[in-house]
Amino acid sequence: MEFSVALVVFGLVLVVVGSLVQIVRAFQQSIWWGIAYMVLPAGNLAFMICHWARARGSLFCVLIGVALIGIGAVIDEKGLSAKSLFAALTSSDGDKDVESLNASIDGVRARIETLEDQLQARGAELAKQFQTLDQQRKELKVTDPAEVQRFNAEAEAYTAQNNAQKAIGVELESARAKLSGLLDERARLRAANPPVPAQYASASTPATDTAPATTGANGKQVVMYTTASCPACVAAKRYLIQRGVRYEERDVERSSDARKEFQSLGGRGVPLIVVGNERMEGFNSQQFERMIGG
Questions:
Q1: Partners of residue 280 on adjacent β-strands
Q2: What are the extents of the domains in the chain?
Q3: How confident is the model at residue 75 (pLDDT cuts 50, 70, 90)?
Q4: Residue 222: its pLDDT value, please?
Q5: CA dist list (Å): 173 to 22, 112, 145, 164, 179
Q6: 217 near 292, Cβ under 8 Å?
Q7: Partners of residue 249 on adjacent β-strands
Q8: What sign results for the dihedral spanned by CA atoms 268, 274, 280, 285?
Q9: What per-residue string of b and e applies to 41-74 under the rule 16 or more CB within 10 Å gives b?
Q10: 140-157 tens-digit pLDDT
Q11: Does the domain made of 222-293 have the CATH classification 3.40.30.10?
Q12: Burial annotation 21-39 (CB, 10 A radius, 16+ → b, else e)
């Protein structure tokens, strides 16, 4: 919310509060003073003159509120209208919450990419270690204590790394669940804070952008249909993150709605990347750059 709008809002609050306090104090003085204050044209003035000690505090509150409204209107270069005030009030907190969620979503996605890379790299290492251990087990001379001790040490090291791999898998699942929750929360916020109607937007306060937050540099929405076990999906997501392109990921294995959308688009394999009205199966950075820059 702009500073000038904040001044006007605070001024309005002071005017309303001050006026209500004056009415209450008039009725506290007597019911006739209260009726006179509300009904007679000069009743409020007469009450303030006759009972200045009781009325001065609320009067100062009203005057300060009026002054703040005037200052806010002067600060605003183009003047403050009811339309611009409405637009500012309805597009502040919700937008900030969505932006905060977008940052959290991007952070969790980056963490997921890191964990997926670790899982893939460690998995390849563990597979080689298991093959080596299995071969050593077959050739192990149980009558040689030193050789048995070396084998046991290597087996323990493999077990420790395997446990670490499982821990990464658990963390990865937790991160995916967190991402799903954040996406759901963002969807609820967007539903609860629809864009400001165009008729309430002014030249100084543009209407809220109706495009989804997951957009590329040219404003086109970027949606990627993926699965958790897809290496090409990992590469595509890493590229988009490095490029700074915000996107919406839809896992066709975890979400029935995403799977239906994927099928309705004629998808045969993942990743399926949709940029505006264009689609790409698999991932090619040059083709993506053409789509996002078109």
A1: 273
A2: 3-90, 93-193, 222-293
A3: low
A4: 92
A5: 60, 9, 42, 14, 10
A6: yes
A7: 224
A8: negative
A9: eebbeebbeeeeebbeebbebbeebeebbeebee
A10: 888 888 888 888 888 888
A11: yes
A12: bbbebbeebeeebbebbee
pLDDT tens track for 206-262 = 333 333 444 555 678 899 999 888 888 888 988 888 888 888 999 998 888 999 999
Helix, strand, coil share (%) of the chain residues, nearest 5: 70, 5, 25
Q: What size, in residues, is the chain?
A: 294
From the list 200, 123, 212, 222, the residue with the least C-alpha distance to 164 is 123
Tokens coding 96 = 């900030």
Higher pLDDT, 94 or 134: 134
In whole angstroms, what is the distance from residue 261 CA to residue 271 CA? 13
Residue with tokens 């937790």: 174
Based on the number of CB atoms within 10 Å of its own CB, is 139 exposed (0-12), middle (13-18) or buried (19 or more)? Answer: exposed
User: Encoding tokens for residue 24?
Assistant: 């209450």
